[in-house]
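TL;DR need structure tokens for one chain.
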Amino acid sequence: MKGDKLYFSPILDCYNNELIAYQCSRHPDGRLVKQMVLQAIARLAEGDSPILHSDQGIQYQMASYQQLLAEHHIVQSMSRKGNCLDNAAMESFFGRMKVECFYGKTFENIEELESVIKEYVRYYNEERIQLKLNGLSPVQYRIQSLK
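>> reply
TL;DR here they are.
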């Protein structure tokens, strides 16, 4: 890929470890996180007031981002500076994704990488079982809990 970068910005639901929204972009900017949040907002039910945790990246400190969260009754939470343990659930996901999806592989171009990420998100949500979820995938666990 010759130095090209692709930024992957997901939202993980800590109830069932499901990736409920994500966006990929060549730039880690406000537009990337705005589109990700709008994708998540589309899934909210009337009266929901979730907590959205992030690190302290500049895109999460922008007034427009904070206003978008407030308009949709989303409580913003941010990690303490230099403390990756505050975002352990997301860091754990990224660690698994790197091992299962990237190690030992090379990609011809950004489009191929983005396609691999999209397929991994589908696999992770719909097929990848987790002990924490009683041997179910995140989607299976969510569906079971709604019965």
